[in-house]
Amino acid sequence: MSATPIAEMTDRARDVFRLVVEGYLDSGLPMGSRTISRLPGVNLSPASIRNVMQDLEELGLLSHPHTSAGRVPTEGGLRLFVDGMMQAAAPSAEERAAIEGRLDRGGPIEEVLAAATAALSGLSACAGIVLVPKREPVLRQFGFVPLSADQALAVMVGHDGSVENRVVELPAGITASTLAEAGNYVSARFSGLTLAEALARLNSEIRAGEAALDRVSQELVARGLAIWSRDGAQRPVLIVRGQANLVESDAAADLERVRQLLDELEGKEEIARLLDSARAGRGMKIFIGSENKLFALSGSSVIAAPYRGADGKVVGVVGVIGPTRLNYARVVPMVDFTAQALSRLMA
């Protein structure tokens, strides 16, 4: 059932709904009518509160896990609360200092981004996630290691010290000495270029008859560079920190949900594609539970915000992932602050 707009709810219904949601997000427990009636500023009897809660349940905003228990917000109720009722609290001076302190350490951009995710993870008690800007590594060394008669491992060392490998299908007629010759040729001729630039230069040399390789070696090098370049451009790079935060001490009854979420985090490419959709937006994206089919089983939430490069264009996304019972009012501004800090760092 679709959530009723807040404007259509009575003041009493809005107040009770807000107290149920805030109490649940704070404690993780269903909120009962008697508990709510004892809160400061509440002038309603438990019976009146039960009636309102029943109405809210019929609207699809609340549910009760057991017949004798209090109510908890549904995913639709959480969405209504986050979009229309939440009062966000700006990060404290200590939280801002913790985030900025991690970002000010310098080093390669991947290390800075990893530090940002670690800071978010520690402050939010969730897993921190960041989608790294898509960019091809610059070649320093390249080599082929034979695996079988028809496959080899292409190994690339980047100028930033990174080492990656891909399995490449071999053309007919390739020998171990041919593999060594091809690797040495790439390292000598194309060091300092991206894979796409190296492939373009190789094609140019072949057309001009300047490539000092036989036809079989040319085919091997071209095939390796083309596959790797295409894969590198399409493969999203996702950094995840703080998965252990998802296994809470009081989550024993919910271990299956936690296991499912950890499994989802292992499939980084799907999570990265979800985050990639936040690039198109101008600001914060909040995905709650089964609103996204990826989290239909684990009932997880993602809070993500894009960050920008020196030209002002969106280059990546930073955020957190955790159970739907998040302190949205605190975590949303924290993620936004981190995205802004990353944008300033890259400007």
Summarize the structure.
This protein is of the alpha+beta class and 347 residues long. Helices cover 46% and strands 18% of the residues. The chain has helices at residues 11-27, 33-37, 46-58, 75-84, 93-103, 109-124, 176-190, 195-207, 215-234, 255-266, 268-276, 328-346; strands spanning 62-63, 72-73, 127-132, 139-146, 151-158, 163-169, 237-241, 285-288, 300-308, 314-323.
**Cα distance spanning the termini:** 45 Å
**Count the strands?**
10
Radius of gyration: 26 Å
Biggest sheet layout: 5 strands, antiparallel
Query: Which sequence of strands runs across the widest sheet?
Result: 7-3-10-9-8
Give the rounded overall mean pLDDT. Answer: 83
Question: If you had to describe this structure to a student in words, what would you say it looks like?
Answer:
With about 350 residues, the chain is of the alpha+beta class. It is built from 12 helices and 10 strands. The strands form 3 sheets. Strands 7-3-10-9-8 form a 5-stranded antiparallel sheet, sandwiched between helices. A hairpin with a 4-residue loop joins strand 5 and strand 6. The protein is elongated. The relative contact order is 0.13. The mean pLDDT is about 85.
